[in-house]
Write a structure and sequence with these properties.
Belongs to the short-chain dehydrogenases/reductases (SDR) family. The protein is α/β, with parallel strands linked by helices. The chain has helices spanning 2-26, 41-52, 72-80, 94-108, 133-162, 199-219, 247-259, and strands at 32-35, 60-65, 84-88, 115-118, 174-178, 225-230, 269-271.
Length: 279
């Protein structure tokens, strides 16, 4: 039994290693990346994987945090890697979004922004008995409205990057909205609907999926890819200790999928394995 467990761990490690190698190759032509909600959880792991997996010291990795001074792990990472740039961003403040867009402009300059990963999100847990209008609006503002407003503010930088290439993908310009399988209307039925009865979270992710699809329609003419990606149920502060995926397993797969996106994935809703999910 122990031998089988060790063998499983070895297979999982080798798979993650292969995915990381694939990700490094895919992100080679992506010069500028911005990750929101990078102070902890998946956002922090995305930044860490990008910087440790890249041999290009000129790659600009922008990590946002609502309170950078309190993001100690991110600060330590940036101290070791000078190409990580931490900027302040409170995603529910329009003033903060506009200031952050100005800061990003100064960093990327003529390169523009190749890849925006809208990762910041919260989970306001409330079922039918406990949900309130305030809880719904709180979750909607962070998870649904903020990615739209952030993308709008950064659109000139995305267009600047997109103007330098052809096709679709992170080599040109892409908006990745980190969404959730729990936002799927089709899957929230039968046995699947008996768990995670989180009205604010589920509906905010459903709304984000529609925002993603709407933006995909509007950004297509500029050659900017837009899609939604489910990172899996991950052992983070939000996911909890019962989640089956480690952050490393999730992020290696997520970045591999992002790195391989093309025109065919524009406007899509994908699982971290790369498989399409039902809306």
């Amino acid at each position: 039994m122990i031998t089988h467990y060790i063998r499983y761990e070895e297979i999982a490690h080798n798979k993650s290693k292969f995915l990381i190698i694939t990700m490094i190759s895919a992100f080679k032509n992506c010069r500028t990346v911005m990750v929101t909600g990078a102070s902890r959880g998946l956002g922090l792991r995305v930044v860490e994987s990008l910087v440790t997996g890249s041999s290009d010291p000129d790659k600009i990795i922008i990590a946002t945090a609502r309170n950078p001074s309190g993001a100690q792990e991110l600060q330590k990472l940036a101290e070791r890697h000078p190409n990580i740039h931490i900027i302040t961003l409170d995603v529910v403040s329009q003033e903060s979004i506009e200031k952050a867009a100005q800061d990003v402009d100064l960093l990327v300059q003529e390169l523009g922004l190749n890849c925006l990963i809208n990762n910041a999100g919260i989970n306001v847990v409330a079922n039918f008995e406990t949900v309130t209008a305030e809880k719904m609006l709180e979750n909607f503002h962070t998870n649904s409205v903020a990615p739209l407003m952030i993308t709008k503010a950064l659109l000139p930088l995305l267009k600047r990057a997109a103007a330098k290439g052809t096709g679709m993908g992170i080599h040109r310009a892409a908006v990745i909205n980190m969404t959730s399988l729990l936002g799927s209307v089709e899957l929230n039925w039968g046995d699947r609907a008996k768990n995670f009865k989180w009205y604010p979270y589920r509906t905010s992710k459903s709304a984000l999926n529609m925002v993603t699809r709407c933006m995909a329609v509007d950004l297509e003419a500029d050659g900017i890819l837009c899609m939604g990606l489910h990172p899996g149920w991950v052992r983070t502060d939000m996911g909890g200790p019962e989640a089956p995926l480690s952050p490393e397993e999730s992020i290696s797969s997520v970045l591999s999928v992002i790195g391989g996106l093309t025109e065919k994935d524009h406007g899509s809703f994908l699982h971290y394995t790369g498989e399409p999910l039902p809306w």
